[in-house]
């Protein structure tokens, strides 16, 4: 599933071709086609932004278009008449503006709603602080991780809860916990505030570097998809598994640097 850094790069790639331009045609396809998408035809695109793992396109009539790519979705940008790299049958949404065509392929979530309703939207209103936002609030992130509903969660499960922190996914939760030498199955309640703050700060640093919105580079993966290869710190073979009590994602960790993880 694309993480916040990928969505920010996607928004940055679309923005110069869409913002300030008027939609000349819009159409949807596939299951759950967007109703009344014609309402954005003739409207100017005001902004293209990423929020957590969501891409939001806002129009001058106060409508907002949301896509969530999940595992297989992606946005492409083409010149008018250019051949698409995926079959048209896989296009969930097509936006045409002067000089460009933006196509969202394979996304399971494409919806149009009034911007004023965003705060009540079940997929947006409950999001935690966006790790890639310039206004990121570390204190609020800590409070959300400390919420009673997350006390008994493993830290690796809590990091994937978008209501605690928005934007982080499986790649960067694994890399963050390795960087901070934290056992992925350590319970949130057993970690002190300083450790949680370091985890949040490292997650933000890695995501912002990968997204290209801050100086520096995230660098090569240290544990993600490196099962059996030597730990870059101690040489122990990296392990991977779907851990007891964790979310159904593959966890990668160093059993020496981070503990036995169950």
Secondary-structure blueprint:
Blueprint: H1 4-18, E1 25-28, E2 45-51, E3 54-59, E4 63-68, E5 74-78, E6 91-97, E7 100-105, E8 109-114, H2 138-145, H3 155-159, H4 170-179, H5 193-211, E9 239-241, E10 251-253
Antiparallel strand pairs: 1-6, 2-3, 3-4, 4-8, 5-7, 6-7, 9-10
Strand order of the largest sheet: 1-6-7-5
Distance between the termini: 25 Å
- Provide the β-strand percentage band: 15-25%
State the domain count.
2
Number of helices: 5
Helix percent reads 10-25%
Named at the architecture level, the CATH assignment of the largest domain is Alpha-Beta Barrel
Q: Which fold name fills CATH's third level, the topology of the largest domain?
A: N-terminal domain of MutM-like DNA repair proteins
Q: Sheet with the most strands? A: 4 strands, antiparallel
Number of strands: 10
Q: Give the overall shape.
A: elongated
Q: How confident overall, as mean pLDDT?
A: 90
Order of helical and strand elements:
HEEEEEEEEHHHHEE
Class from helix and strand fractions: alpha+beta
Write structural notes for this entry.
A hairpin with a 3-residue loop joins strand 3 (54-59) and strand 4 (63-68). The model has no long low-confidence stretch (mean pLDDT 90). Helices cover 22% and strands 20% of the residues. With 262 residues, it is an alpha+beta fold.
In short:
The chain has about 260 residues and is an alpha+beta fold.
Protein traits:
single chain; Helicase, Ruva Protein, domain 3; 2 domains; 4-stranded antiparallel beta sheet; 10 strands; elongated
């Amino acid at each position: 599933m694309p993480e916040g850094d990928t969505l920010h790069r996607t928004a940055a790639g679309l923005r110069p071709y869409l913002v300030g331009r008027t939609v000349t045609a819009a159409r949807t396809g596939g299951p759950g086609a967007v109703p009344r998408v014609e309402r954005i035809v003739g409207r100017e695109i005001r902004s293209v932004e990423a929020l957590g793992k969501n891409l939001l396109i806002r129009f001058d009539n106060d409508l907002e278009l949301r896509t969530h790519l999940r595992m297989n979705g992606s946005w492409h940008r083409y010149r008018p008449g250019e051949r698409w790299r995926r079959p048209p049958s896989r296009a969930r949404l097509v936006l045409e503006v002067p000089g460009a065509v933006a196509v969202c392929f394979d996304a399971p979530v494409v919806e149009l709603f009034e911007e004023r309703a965003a705060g009540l939207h079940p997929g947006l209103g409950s999001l935690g602080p966006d790790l890639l936002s310039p206004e990121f609030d570390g204190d609020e992130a800590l409070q959300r991780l400390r919420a009673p509903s997350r006390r008994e969660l493993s830290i690796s499960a809590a990091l994937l809860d978008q209501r605690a922190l928005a934007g982080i996914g499986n790649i960067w939760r694994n890399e963050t916990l390795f960087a901070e030498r934290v056992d992925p199955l350590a319970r949130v309640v057993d970690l002190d505030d300083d450790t949680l703050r370091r985890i949040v700060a490292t997650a933000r640093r890695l995501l912002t570097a990968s997204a290209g919105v801050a100086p520096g580079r995230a660098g090569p993966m240290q544990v993600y998809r490196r099962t059996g290869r030597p730990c870059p710190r101690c040489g122990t073979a990296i392990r991977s598994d779907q851990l007891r009590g964790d979310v159904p994602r593959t966890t990668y960790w160093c059993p020496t640097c981070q503990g036995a993880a169950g």
